Structure formats: structure tokens, C-alpha cells
Amino acid sequence: MSITIALAGNPNSGKTTLFNAMTGMNQFVGNWPGVTVEKKEGALKGRNDVVVVDLPGIYSMSPYTPEEMVARDFLVQERPDVIIDIVDGTNIERNLYLTTQLTEIGIPVVVAVNMMDAVDKRGDEINAENMSKALGCKVVKISALKGEGLVELAKTAVEIASFGKTSPQHIFRGTVEHALAHIEEAVLHDLPDERQRWYAIKLFERDGKVAAKLGVDGARLAHIEQDIRACEAEMDDDSESIITCERYSYIESVISRCRVLKHANEMSLSDKIDLVVTNRVLALPIFVAIMFVVYYVSITSVGALATDWANDGVFGEGWNLFGAESLPVPGVPELAERFLNFMDCAPWLRSLVTDGIIAGVGAVLGFVPQMFILFFFLAFLEACGYMARAAFIMDRIFRRFGLSGRSFIPLLISSGCGVPGIMASRTIKSDRDRKITVMTTTFIPCSAKLPIIALIAGAIFGGAWWVAPSAYFVGIAAVVCSGVILKKTRLFAGDVSPFVMELPAYHWPVPRNIALSVWERGWSFIKRAGTIIMLASIFVWFTSNYGWSDGSFGQVDMSESILAVLGSSVAWIFAPLGWGSWQAAVTTLTGLIAKENLVGTMGVLFGVADEENSAAMWSVFAAHFPALSAYSFLLFNMLCAPCFAAMGAIRREMMTAKWFWIAVLYQCGFAYAVSLCFYRIGMFISSGVFGIWTIVAAALLVMFLWLLFRSDSGGSKKTGWNASAASPING
Ligand code: GDP
Hints:
With about 725 residues, the protein is of the alpha/beta class. The chain has 33 helices and 13 strands. A seven-stranded mixed beta sheet has the order 2-3-4-1-5-6-8, sandwiched between helices. It has a two-stranded antiparallel ribbon with strand order 7-9. A hairpin with a 7-residue loop joins strand 10 (about 320) and strand 11 (about 330). Helix 13 crosses helix 23 (about 465-485), helix 17 (about 370-385) packs antiparallel against helix 24 and helix 27 runs antiparallel to helix 28. The radius of gyration is 31 Å and the shape is elongated. The two termini are about 50 Å apart. Bound molecules: guanosine-5'-diphosphate (GDP). Guanosine-5'-diphosphate (GDP) binds near residues 9, 57, 118 and 143. Guanosine-5'-diphosphate (GDP) binds near residues 9, 13, 57, 118 and 144.
């Protein structure tokens, strides 16, 4: 009889090195059936009756990635005779997570602690005997690279394949064990004893695929659901997180029994920082505070000063370089004026340059200093390692709402630009999570939306401290609420995939890299101002200055222009939101070409270039927008469909036209509803205005709250079984 050895371990633990060392040239490479995951098999050197099967490198046996599915199906269904679990000895904290799962399957396990040469070099010690006792399985120390310990490993594996037994030593907390015992009793008593535990834990985690494989019927699922819920209520966490946390505390205890670090009590600075920064209680307030400071400083305080300087100086009157008496340096409008006079240009060209291009492009470019400050902060946070922590922290929170922390990375990227943000969602394996992320990621204000935020914060709210950060947090709230609402619908039924990411140690960023990142982002912003924004500004200038008057086409008053006619024909749509002027409607539409246009178009429409300084110029704009209308306008434009470039990305990532339209209509509908509720309820509270739209807004709000808090019928993880379970249980 031949013996099958399965080789399992984390990526980078040295599996390939070990496999090659064990099998030599006797390898067969193919694919696992139905997936593109590579399958390697080979006979153990000198033992043609022993087959080594190399499983894909995985961090856990969750049913989410193809690699995890392949590994777990093979182990649970094909049941090899023995598992060699290769563990990176320099990183046992992370590697043992998989080990705790492997020992529960009921197949003999031998843990191969690899990279012992590196461990020895550091002067650390790993006690194999103690580890073996703590885990309940054999442990052999090896160095795959140096070929040390491999003979003993192979011998041990072959030995325990026939006679060995692995009995998991890990005992979960009382309430969890209680639930597991109930599950075993209710649905698993027909299985051999040693296999029950793994299945019980998976059922406790509400693994629909396992439930389906076991053929557990709806009644029995409902029965064990009660046990799971009781445990969740007692531990105030969802069942999957409970298991994960318990595993980690068990791993800690295993490590404390078997490893001595040479520099034991010297916690690295990075670990010390993480004690605070990723602390369960403090993490979120710290994250909020950091993001608040970043947005406050770059948009409201320092950034606004810099932008005023740019607007008043470069794009305004100019400034005196060395005090009031010195030589004045003219601003761009003044220079352009002189140049146009010098060239003796026609009035229309003069108007095109000053009222069109300089007003539009200048309005956008005026925000460049704010952009640069923001980009600097984001690049710094990313480079020093904080952003990885942010994703980790957000995962804990997102998970409560049925979203995956993986969604946070696209969101983060979207704070620069939605297009790469949408593309980054490709890394999300779960189809449901990916679609939700693609649909919601542009709710986060991208850099092109910042000018309009800064403008409204400055011109309408007098630089109030809360406006800029609020736009960011509205974006996050929109993502979270959408996630909660969408995942409860049938369209998005499915599992939340867990999130494994390595946290790099904190380090001082290399200034050059930061400078590069800031420059790249900033330059692309400037380039867009010079290209697409310029074209759009020219378009807006032309259509807002020309039209038909008394039957002939020519320069007309703005209120009679083509743009006014176009704008007026759609303005009624936005009137209920508190900004029904044709200018606001047109601005919103040009925002679809590029979001910077929101400011560029306003610059042209409100004749910004004519005014003397930035305060006066935007006061014209402020007069147009009462505070509530302005914030409602901001909300709509933050949340509605993104620019065409981002819509193109959505179309590509969604693959089908149907899903593209679902995404865009959802975004616009959501934006409309939020703005309507905000404006109408705000008007009612602040000035008692009541009407049919107030009722509509109230009804929408109630519906929104209902969608948000209703129990889950879509089959998400938290309150039900995923769709592939034998029978979903409704809340
Ligand atoms: P896999 O991703 O698990 O297949 O890992 P590989 O076999 O590709 O190994 C990852 C890295 O670890 C490679 O650079 C190997 O050379 C190195 N490596 C593997 N085994 C050992 C070992 O025993 N000691 C040391 N120092 N390095 C090793």
C-alpha cells in the first residue's frame, strides 16, 4: 500500500525548497481539477511507495480563495495519510494559525519547523518537544535549504502515517466548546470521532459550503444556529472572529511554552507603537483623529492659506515680492491682459482667454497647494507603514458590517483617484465584496473633488473646521451603509472573505520616495487642468456666452446662452435638493467629465476672473448658495456617479452592462436620496419649511433606516448561512 503525504504551509515558508529536497527529480506538475492552481506530486526519494503532494501555499483553510479551497478539499475529502505542515521558524506566530486548523482535521500531522539555520543564527531557541506537547502532534526541526533534518522528517512522516494520531490540544473557551459539543451531537454523530471537531468548528463559523457538503437540512441548521447565536451574544462578537481570536490566544500560549528569544523582552519599537495604534479600543479614535488632522490641515488651515496665496497672487492681482514698497509681481490675469493688449486681440479671444481658460483652469489650479499638502500626508502615512494598519483596523470594523477589510485598500487608493481605486478591487476574491467595493469606492472624495470641498468650506462656511473632514467621513459612512444595505439584498448574497495582510514594521520614509509620490499625483492633477479641464472650460465659456437671441446666433447675455437653456431644462431635477439654478445643474453635469470641473465651471459661470481677489470672487458664488443648499450640493456631487474615466473603470471591472448600470444608478439614486433628506429635513428643522418634499424626505429616511437595520434575508455571514448552504435561515 502506498502512503500519501500532503505538504501544507504558508506561502514563503520554504515549501518548494522542501518539496524539491524530498522528491528530487521525481516530480509531476499539473493542475488541480477545475482551477488554475498548480498541482505538484512526486515520489519520496528512495521510496517509490510514498507520494508527496504539494498543496498550494495558504494562510488558513477558509473557503474563500481557490488555493484554500483546493487545499481543504484535498485534505478533507481525499484524506492523505499524513500531513507535513511546514512552519517558518522565524515567524511561528503567523504560521501556527494554519497548524491549529490542520491538527483538527483528524489526520496525523507532523510539524516541520523550517529555517532553523536562521533561527539558530539569531540565537533564538525552539524546543521541539514542548511544541509537540502543546500542539498534540510530532514536531521536527529542519532546514530545507541546508538539507538538515529531512531524513528524520521523512521517517517520522512515514511512521505516523501508519500508526500515528494527532489529538488537537486546543480547548476553546467554555461557551464555544459548549456550542461545538451541541453541533457535534446534532449533526455530526455519524462521522468518526476524530473528524467531528473540524466539521463542528466550520459549522460554528457558518461555513455554508461545509453545511451543503454534509447535507445538513434546514431544520438542523436552524437548531445549531441557536447555539451559535447564544455564544455570539455571550462573547459579543461574530462566530468567525471568536474562533480566530481564540486561535491566536492559543498560539500565544504554545509559543510561550516552546520558544525562547535571545532578545526576548526587547519589544521592537514597531510593536510598542502597535500596542497603542492597533489597540482594540484606541485604534478607531486614533484613525479618525489622524484623518481629521490630515484633512483639516491640508484643506482648511495651512492648505487654505496656501491656496489663498495662489488665488490672490498667481491667479489674482499679483503680489509684492519684498514688502509693500517693492516691485509688484503681476498675477496671471494681469499678465494675460497685458499680453492680449499687446497683441491687440479681438474681444472674443480676450474673453475666451480671461473668462474661459483663466477663470476655469485657474480656479482649479488655485487648489494645487492644498493638493500637494494632502498628497504629502497620504504618502507619508503610506510610506511609514500606518496605512497598512489602517486597513487592518478597518477590517475589524468593516467585518461587523459584513464587509471585508480588503475593500479598504481600494477606498484608500480612491482618496487619490477613483480609477486605480476601482481597479484595485480586482484583488478581492469574493465576487460579492468586489462588486460592492466597485460600486461604493468612489464615495470617498478623490483629489479632484477636493477643490469643491475646499471651495464650499471656504466660501460658504467661512473656513469652518468641520466641513473638509466631514466630506471624508460622509464618504466612509456612505460606503459602510451601502455595504450593509446591499449585502442584505439577494443580488449580493455570499460570504465575507477574511483578510490576511502582513504589517510591515514602522519606518521613517525615504524623503525621495515621498517626494516622487507627491509629485506624480500632483503633476497628474496639474496635467488634467491643462487638458481636459481646459477643454471643458472652453466649452462652458462658449456655451455660456453664445446663444440665439432675436432669431440670430451670437454673443448673448448669459441668461440666454445655450448653456442656460440646457441647464434650465434639467434644473428641475435638482430643485428639490435646494439648488435648482441652471448654473448648479450645469456644474453638476460638467462634473461628470471630470470632477475638477465643478470648480472650473463655477469659475467661468460666476465670472470669477473679473473679481479682484479670491474672497470677493467667491462671495458672488456664496450669494448663490445658502449654507444648506451648498452642503446639499456638495453631498450630491460627492456621492453621485463619478467622472467618465471612473465610470469606464466601473464598466470594465463589472464586466457586464447590466452591472455597470446597477452601479451608476445606485450611486446617483443614493446621492439624490441623501441630499434630499439632508436638505429637506434640514430646512424643516432650521426654518420650519414643510411641504410635499419634506414628507418624501422623511419617507426616504425611514426606508433607509429600515433597509439598514432590517434583518438579513440575503444570506450574509453574520445572521444567516451563505447561499450555498442547504437552506438559508432568515433572521
Ligand atoms: P514557498 O513559497 O513556501 O514555496 O517557499 P520557497 O521554498 O520558495 O522558499 C522561500 C524562501 O525561503 C526562499 O528564498 C528560500 O531560499 C528560503 N528558504 C527555504 N528554506 C529555508 C531554510 O531552511 N533556511 C533559510 N535560511 N531559508 C530558506
